[in-house]
Amino acid sequence: MESNIKEKIRLIREGRGFSQEYVAKKLNLTQQAYSSIESNPENVKVDRLKELCRVLGISIGTLFLHHNDFSEVRLDTDISESDKWPLIIFLSEAEKSAYEMRIYDLQNEILELKKLK
After folding, report:
1. pLDDT digit string (tens) for 39-73?
2. Residue 55 near residue 40, CB atoms below 8 Å
3. Hey, how many other C-beta atoms are within 10 angstroms of the C-beta on 82?
């Protein structure tokens, strides 16, 4: 496994707003057991990784996608537009669609506000 898989798992979990305790509960594990999965995913059975991916809302293939800039993605309030785009690969089709609709609505709202000037 790529060494950045544990970083991907952590970033996805944090990006979803999930604590280790929450994910552990969803997987019917203790927080300590889950922590060992997150810190050492290469020792985890595929079935457990599939369960983890289901909880995180991603496909197992997403964990193995290679993205050179992924390790530089920050999850803080100062994220630039160029830092945000790699995270889209972790969205389900339904989430992507929902975001596209929200963007469309916001663009229309901006147009309406500009008309009021």
Report:
1. 888 888 888 988 998 898 887 777 776 543 444 33
2. no
3. 10
By the 8 A CB rule, do 67 and 89 touch? yes
pLDDT < 70 positions in the chain: 1-3, 65-92
**Is residue 50 within 8 Å of residue 60, measured between CB atoms?**
yes
CB-based contact 86:67 (threshold 8 Å): yes
Q: Are 86 and 97 in contact, with CB atoms under 8 Å apart? A: no
Q: Find the domain containing 40 and state its range.
A: 5-115
| Total number of residues shown for the chain | 117
State the pLDDT at residue 52. 93
The pLDDT value given to residue 73: 36
10-24 as b/e: b if 16+ CB within 10 A? ebbbeeeebebeebb
Q: How many structural domains comprise the chain?
A: 1
